[in-house]
Amino acid sequence: MNLENFLATKKTSIREALELIGKNNHGVIMIQDENDVVISLATEGDIRRKLIDGVSLDDPVTICANETFIWADLKTPREMLLKQLDQRIRIIPILDKAKKLKSIVSRDFFPVLEEEPTYARARSPVRISFGGGGSDLTDYFAGESGAVINTTVSIYSHSLLKKRKDNKIIIHSRDLNESLVAPDLKSAIQGNGKMGLFKSLLKAIHPDFGFELFVNSDFPPGSGLGGSAVVASAVLGCFNQFRQDKWDHHEIAELAFQAERLYLGISGGWQDQYATVFGGFNFMEFKFDQNVVNPLRIHPDTLVELEESLILCDTGITHNSGEILSDQCENLQQDIMRKRVQSSVELTYKMRNYLLRGRLLEFGKCIDEGWNIKRQLSSKISDSHFDRIYDGAIKSGAIGGKLLGAGGGGFFLFYAPPFQKYQVMDYLTSQGLNIKNFNFELEGLRAWTAREHRTLMETTAK
Fold first, then answer.
1. What confidence score (pLDDT) does residue 186 get?
2. What is residue 167's DSSP assignment?
3. Could you give the C-alpha distances from 384 to 5, 239, 429, in angstroms and in order?
4. What is the pLDDT of residue 259?
């Protein structure tokens, strides 16, 4: 739309104004002063009435103009403009702060909403595994079937991503207190170091744009909560928001596994990636030809009672899950170790059935039985310090418990009956463990986009 066809001056004649109206085809003309400020508006009807009253075509159009007219500024909501047009208003001039014409809105011409800069956010929850750990290792289920039971809880990794107009890549990890700055993707993925997980993710994603990424988590590294998979899931969730052909849950979990296990070379199983992406209570079965995630329909009363019966506590000792799981994989070459894992898998099926039927006391006992099997899989899973804490918790009233993840540190999880829970908590606190409150998180990875202008504060350059 040519705005010049809508503008006249104080010297413009009625004849000239009618010619402009013929060109703009909107039946209106605006008069501006010597500073290009719109001061009045005349419609074709206004001009016709003046001509009937006897004015000449050579008279200035200002004698036909109205200084009181409806207009809008650049920040006027579209909703208000639509309502005004719905009240039989034919045209609305859009003026800037100086009252200069910037655009025209009419029933026949309403500007299309342009795409605005957006950013992506994602958060992904950690998992707590109740049983079957070790059977999700490829070295195990390449021969036998594996099975685990787990759920996600309200402890998250958070990711924030915005595109850049250049190829520069900037990643800030608050968890590691490190940043990666590179001129392009090729430079960014070189080497490993502390930012190795992010470099492996970039290798798997291969983004074709520059960006700035911020990552922070509610848990420390080496916590036994599947943290690296959770971070990877949150990052992948952000990048997925900028894809036209979005990855599904299985593809995101597989990309996270690819980055962590293949590119970064950290030993581990498959459950962490599926758990954080899918979320909720799941019974997962692992076979070499296919992994299956079975969501569990558990009665709400059972869920809330189980939630109140569990105690999650931080030992304050980090672990190297890759080292522990590498040792476990080597031990799986022994028949006796494979039989122990198979016993754990069989126990996991019992746990699933107990949970579905609401038999939580038996479920808690199975956690204890599973822990006693698990700590026989590697000498690195537990030691005298953790055994002493565990035995003390049992004596204080806990029914069962375990070190989460690979073991060797991180978080303890205990199941305690209602009237013994507080004395178990008192004991754990006396041993220097930090109790972590949580709720079950029934959703997994969540990712979304937001428009920058709706959330970012305006800043003034200094």
1. 95
2. S
3. 88, 44, 18
4. 94
Cα gap 443→154, rounded to integer Å: 10
| Cα dihedral: 434, 217, 328, 376 (round 10) | 20
41/26 Cα distance (integer angstroms) = 13
Interatomic CA distance for residues 109 and 99, integer angstroms: 21
User: Average pLDDT in the 304-313 region?
Assistant: 97
Dump pLDDT digits (tens) for 12-68.
999 999 999 999 989 999 999 999 999 999 999 999 999 999 999 999 999 999 999
Cβ-Cβ contacts under 8 Å for 358 (sequence gap 6 or more):
299, 301, 302, 305
Residues in the chain: 462
Of 46, 136, 272, 314, the active-site residue reads 272
- The yes-or-no verdict on residue 321 having pLDDT over 70 is no
How far apart are alpha carbons 266 and 258 in whole angstroms?
10
Q: What is the distance between the alpha carbons of residues 341 and 390, in angstroms, rounded to a whole number?
A: 21
154-213 residue pLDDT tens: 999 999 999 999 999 999 999 999 999 999 999 999 877 789 999 999 999 999 999 999
The whole-angstrom separation of Cα 217 and Cα 276 is 13
Return d(Cα 367, Cα 351) in angstroms, integer: 8
| Alpha carbons 39 and 93: distance in angstroms, whole number | 12
SS3 141: helix
Average confidence score pLDDT of the chain: 91
Residue with tokens 């400020």: 37
pLDDT tens column, 22-33: 999 899 999 999
Q: What is the pLDDT of residues 332-384, one digit of tens each?
A: 778 888 888 899 999 999 999 999 999 999 999 999 999 999 888 877 888 89
Distance CA 129, CA 352 (A): 12
Provide the CA 222 distance to its chain's centre, in angstroms: 22
For the chain, the farthest-separated pair of C-alpha atoms sits apart, in whole angstroms, at: 111
Name the β-bridge partners of 401: 414
pTM, full prediction = 0.83
Q: How far apart are CA 47 and CA 65, in angstroms?
A: 8
272 is catalytic: yes
**Domains in the chain, ordered, with CATH?**
3-106 (3.10.580.10), 119-441 (3.30.230.120)
Cβ contact 136:148 at 8 Å: yes
pLDDT (mean) for 104-126: 88
CB 24 within 8 A of CB 6: yes
Predicted pLDDT at 462: 33
Task: Classify 146 as helix, strand or coil.
Answer: strand
